[in-house]
Amino acid sequence: MRVIDLSLPITDGMPVYPGDPEVKVKIAHTYERHNWELRQLSMGSHTGTHVDAPSHMHPGAATLDELPLERFFGTSRVVRIEDPAWPKGRGLFFAEAVGLECLDRLAALQPPFVGGELSEELERALLAIGIVTYTGLQGLERLPVGTDFMFYGFPLRIAGGDGSPVRAVAVVEAHMGK
User: Fold this and answer.
1) Domains (ranges, CATH) in the chain?
2) Which residues 6+ apart lie within 8 Å of 74 measured at CB?
3) Above 80 in pLDDT, residue 176?
4) Minimal CA–CA distance to 170: which of 8, 1, 50, 4?
5) Rg over CA atoms, the chain
6) Across the chain, what does the average pLDDT equal?
């Protein structure tokens, strides 16, 4: 099996969506002074690789802590817009930019989550129908297209959370002879 990290590193001053809080990562304690090391983090809930809860764009919709953990992992597949059929019952990821042209197909399939370079309009529409979204992913092109893999993208347990940074990981099973 191969474990593929799809997460951006969180770094001091990293780029953020215009208007979002700046990311600050500072050393608060050092080995020399405190006998341990500790960092202070300051960032928005949609920093780097992150998951969006429906409440991110829809008042009164489900927050992260209201969604079952099963919504943040599962069998998944990378699909292309032009693929004639997308699988049902899997998380779906796009290694290309996608927009509202995909909404009807996604709404019919009701995947537990969708990820990739999603337009704001598509993200808003998916969250409106209860499909969580993952953005800020890196390395989707390293995943096999048309082959299932396990995806894990657990959020922090933020009470009332509209989103959270995640450590997004794909686990791809190795096939015999490869």
Assistant:
1) 2-11+44-172 (3.50.30.50)
2) 90, 91, 112, 113, 150, 151
3) no
4) 4
5) 17
6) 95
In the block, tokens 């969604």 appear at 67
**pLDDT higher than 90, residue 29:** yes
CB-based contacts of 136, cutoff 8 Å, min separation 6: 8, 47, 48, 49, 50
Q: How much is the pLDDT for 21? A: 97
* pTM (predicted TM-score): 0.93
Joined tokens for residue 145: 């297209």
Quickly list DSSP for 98-164: E-GGGHHHHHHH--SEEEEEE-HHHHHHHHHTT-EEEES---GGGSPBTS-EEEE-PBP--TT-SEE
What is the C-alpha to C-alpha distance for residues 50 and 73, in angstroms, rounded to an integer?
Answer: 13
